[in-house]
Design a protein that fits this description.
single chain, about 950 residues, alpha+beta, five-stranded antiparallel beta sheet, globular
Length: about 950
Amino acid sequence: MKRNKVMSFIRLGILVSFAVVYAVLAHYTKPRIIRYDLYKRIDTSKYGSEYNIARMFENCLVMNVDTSNVYYNGENLSYSDIENLLVFEDGRFFCNSAFINQLLDKDYSGDRVDLEELGYEVLNYNNRMCIVDMGEKDISLFDNLYTAEALYLRLSGKEQEDIENAFVDLPYLISNGRNNAVFYSEPSLNLGIQTEIYWHQINRDDSRPEFVVGEGEYDDNSTLVRVFNKMQTCTQQFLAYNSYVKGGVQVKALKSKEDVLIATAPFKSWPLSARRIRIFNTSGSLCMEIIPNLTAPYVIETGYFTGNDNEQLLITSMYPNNSVKIAIIDIDSAKYVKHITLQDSSLPKGERIRLEKTQNSKELLVFFKESRLVYILNLDNQKLTKLDLNLPEGVNGVYPGKNPGEYIVTADEEIFSSVYLVKDNTNEKINVGWRENRFYSTFAQDNPDGYVDRGIFAHIRTDLSSQIMGRLAELNSVEDALNNASFSEWRRSISSNQIEQYHTTYTMWEPCFTHRWNSITQTSNMSKIIDDKTGLPKYMALGKDNLTTNYHELNSAFLNGSYADGLLPMSKLRLYPLRTFLQDLSVEFRTNPERLVAVSPVHEHEINVAGSIGDYNYYMVLGFRSYLLSLYGSVEKINERFGTNFASIDEIDPPRDENRGKWDKYGGSDYFSYWSLYNRFIVNKRILEAYREALLAGFPPESISAHQIPEGDAVAGFLGEANTRLSPVDVVMSCGTAFGGTRYGTWYEQKNNWLINAYNAGHKNITIGEYSSLARGDIAAYNQLKYLFNHGVRMTHVLVPYPSDSSDYVIVKDKEMLAVYKLQRENNPRPGYTGGTLDVKHIFQDGKSYSVVRIGTGDDQNGLLKSVYDDGSWEGSVYFVPFHSHVDVSKVRMKGSTRSSFKSEDIKNLHHGDQIELTFKGKYTGKGKGKVRIYATYDGEVL
C-alpha cells in the first residue's frame, strides 16, 4: 500500500509537472506586445499656398490695385460697390476712406486715406498689392515672395490654372499637428518635401504607388528605413533599431485604421534589441514593439490572414528547426489572434525560409531556399501542399504570379537580370534588365537589337523657346509681359516633330533652362531692364563691380542671367516652360517608356561671372543677408562672428576684394567662404527645382539625369574661366536621381576622376551630355570609352570642341568614331544595375497591372526597383534606387540628465544629405501636459 501510494504520488507529480510545462509552453508562444500612441502621418497637403497665406497674412489687410477683392484677417471679402478701393500714386497707397471707416471702425473724412496714416507697417508688393500688417509678423516680401504672389493671384481673380501653378514657399517645420514634428533646416534641398507639397498644389491625378524600403541584407548595413512618395522621392528616413544593430532590416507595410504602418525586423539576431519586431508610422514614430517567443531572426509578412477587415502581421522564425511556428497579430487591437505549428517531418530543418502572401488571403507561399522546396500553406486548416515546380539554377525566391497556378521565380546571375514564369511544370525565362544592359552613343550606328546603339541628344531651351518670348520682342512691353502674363502664356509645348522623334529614336531629352542666354532681341531687351531700387540691371548676373559680363564659349558669346531668389519673373521663365514641356513629353513617355534613354532638365547650372566669385545681383545680396541672419540671428552676431562692421541689416554686403577689412578679402576669410557657399546653395536650389518638375511630370527618379559641370574639373584649361565656376555636383550625386555631367579630356587612369566618384556612390545609369576624350590615338580613345562602359555610363553625347574646319577636329572626331565602332562590334552587355533579381511585387491600381522587381542583387549592387510588363519590358511607373550607396551612421554623444537637459557634442563637417536624427522615449508622471523643448544651434546661435 505504501508503495502504491508512493507511486500514485509520483504519477500525480509527473502529471502536475507536465501540466505546468504545457501551460508555460502555451504562454511562451504568445508574443509580448508593447503599444505606444498611434500617431497619424504628416499631412503635407495643407502646406500649399492656402496654408502659407493663412499663416503669413494673419492679422493683415491686403488689397490689390484696381480690384474689389480684399483679404482681411484670414477672410476673403469683396467690395464691388466701392470705386477706387485702392490706388497707387507717387510711391504711396491710398484707400477709399469709407471702406476703411467701415472695416476698421475709423472716422476719416474726405474721399481717400493715405494708408501710412493708419499707424501700421505698410508693405508694397510690386506697386500692385498693398499689405497692411496689423500684427507683429515681420513679413518678408523677399523670403515669402511666392506666398505674396499666390495671394495676389487670388485677389486678382486669375484663372484656376494660374492659381494651381503658383509657387509655394516651403515650410521649414512640418508637423502632424499632434506629437510628431519633422524639422527641415533647408527644405529647398529636400526633393521629398518639394515633390510632396507641389504634387498637392498642382493636384495631379497620379496612381503610382508609394514605397517603404529598408537597407538590404549585408553585414555592414544598418537598419535604416526610407519612405518614398508617389514620385519615388524620400520623404522620411529613420533608424528602426539602435545604431549597433547591423545586417540590414526587413520592412512590410500594412494598413491600420489610424494610418499606414511599417513593420520592421532585423535580418540578424544579435544583439538582444534585434530580437523584437518594431512597428512605425510613415513619419518614423514608434507605435508598437512585439517580442515574439520564437527563435530570432524572424520573417514577417502582412495580410488579411483571418478574413476580417484589419490587416495583420504574421511572424515566424527565419531558420525553423523541428517545427514551423507562426504567430498572427492584429495591429489595430494590439492582440495576438492566432498561432500555427507545423509538425511535418518532411520539412527541412534549420534552413532559410521565405513567406509570401498569395491572392487568396488565407494562403501563404512557403519557400525553403537551400532545398528549393515550395509549399502552399492553408492558414485555416493548417494544411501544407507541396508544389512540384520546375525551378532554375540559382533560384533565390518564389512568388505568386498574377494568375492562379502561375509563379514568378527570381535567381542569382552575374550580368543579366532574369525572372522565370513557372506554370504547369514549365518555366519561361524573361529578361527584365535588357534596358540596363544597353549603351548609347551619338556616334554609334543604328542597331536596335544590339547592346550598343545609336542615341539622339535633344537639347531644348524651354525658357528661350516659350510663348512668352513673343511679348519680349519690344523693349517697352517686357516688364508688363514678365509681371502680368498668364500661365498659359509661359507654355512651351512639345511639337509634332518632337513627338515623332520620341517614338522613332532612342533619345536623351534635355529640356532645360540655364543662366546663359543666347544673345537674341528678347534677352537683350531683358538685359536692359533697370531695377527701380538700385539703378542696376534687374535680371542679370553682376560682377563684384556691379557690371554685367558676357559668357564666352567656343567662339560664342552669351548674356549672363541671374539665378537669384526673389526675382519672380525669372522663376517663371525657368520653370513654367519647363513644367509644360515635361508634362507634354511625359504623355509620350507613358505610352512608350522603352524609347526614353533619359530626361535631363539640368543643363550646366552654375554661377560663373568673369573676374568675380559669385553673382552680385541685388537679389543675391538680399538672399545672402537672409542666409546669414538665418544662421546667426542678428547683425551684431554676424559682426562678432566674421569681424565685419555692419551697422544695420541693409548694410550687409558680400566680399568684394576692396580692402574694407580682412572679411572683404577674396579667398582669405570665413566670410568669403560663406559667400561662396551661398552661391553654391543657390545653384543647388535651381538644380533641385528642375528635378522636381521632371518628377511631378511623371518621370521616375532613375530616368532623370543631369548635364552638370564638375567645378574646376570638366572644362579647366580650354573653356571659360574654370576658377570662377560655382557648379556643384554633390547634390546631383546625393538627391536620389540618376547622375550625369559634362566631361572632356582623357582621364580614365586617374584614381579619383569625376566618374569613379559617382560610380562608387552607386550610380550606374550615368549620362554624359557633352563628351570627347580629345584623344589623338586609337588606344586612348577606346580605353576611355570602355572605361565609361564598365563604370556606369549609359549614354555619351559626343561633342568635339574645336572648329569643324580645323585639323584638331578631324583627328579627335576620327578617333572617337573608331572607339565607338569597336565597342559596337564587340556587342557586349553593359554591366549596369543588372546581375540577379529578387523581390517581385504585383501592382493592381486604377485598371493598370504590372510587377515591380528588384534587379541587381549581388554584393556590389544597389537593387534598382523597376516596374515591368509580363514580357519584361519597362512599364515606366517605377524606376529608382532606394540606396545609391552604403549609408554610414554615426552616433552622437549626449551629455546631461533628465532633471536638467541634454546637450549633444558639436557635430562637424555636415554636408548636403546628412541628417541628424533624435530618437527618445519619454514618460511623464506629473499632472497636466508634459512638454519637450528641442533647440538646434549653429556656431552657438539658436536657429
